[in-house]
């Protein structure tokens, strides 16, 4: 019988997730695969493929044209996360994906990484340093920043979001984590639960490269919040996917926006609860005075197989 998976026919894959954000992973160190959008879409299809929010190719930086450029500046990034959304589109960065990526490198014996050690990973949003922790991985996601309607960095809120289940359009801030995010604050958990995110939220002005949209509510019931750790609940509609159980870059953007809204006394450490679990986002001083976000959370491989 003919295979529908084209260039992936006979290729081994792994299936993994980080807090329910799930990925089809293919290890292709030499970069032999010519991946088409259609093949990626089919691999990620939940009915006719393996199923995943995204598709990750593990490739040596030297074997991907963009990776070679990156190696000139950062020769220590041996491995590159070639990331695609479930619809086949390329994305700059994936926070949950990069933890799964490193977990696969370790599991396949491609990298030795004891607890506390770090590895540098190339991505389309630059090189990320990933540390192995007791219960997963912590990623220095680099600096975050505001984006204005034209895609340039600026300060302030700039967008309006309409979504199914939202009674009136809400103001939002646009934030870059290397990929674009639009964060909307809601007052209560009930409003978050009422959202119907099977339909894509509308963002105005239209972001030039599309956007991931995060809806957040603070968790400040007595006994749950503390002055040292901020807590929020988040749902997300991902660009190129739809609603997902979690989004690592989205959690960082949501924490950055909430911390900005909360003012100067806001904590640096945030727990972000998502439908698939929880991750943490911690704001630290990075090199050259820029503020970086460190995303921490679990990574799991659940299955392996071969494309038929
Ligand atoms: N789920 C990811 C983000 C994946 C890319 C995103 N859909 C985009 O197009 O920017 C994460 O964990 O960060």
From TrEMBL:
It catalyses: (2S,6S)-2,6-diaminopimelate = meso-2,6-diaminopimelate. Gene3D superfamilies: Diaminopimelate Epimerase, Chain A, domain 1. Keywords: Amino-acid biosynthesis, Cytoplasm, Isomerase, Lysine biosynthesis. It comes from the Bacteria. It is found in: Cytoplasm. The active site is at residues 94, 247. The record marks 181, 238 as: Could be important to modulate the pK values of the two catalytic cysteine residues. Pathway: Amino-acid biosynthesis; L-lysine biosynthesis via DAP pathway; DL-2,6-diaminopimelate from LL-2,6-diaminopimelate: step 1/1. Catalyzes the stereoinversion of LL-2,6-diaminopimelate (L,L-DAP) to meso-diaminopimelate (meso-DAP), a precursor of L-lysine and an essential component of the bacterial peptidoglycan. This is Diaminopimelate epimerase. It comes from Kocuria soli.
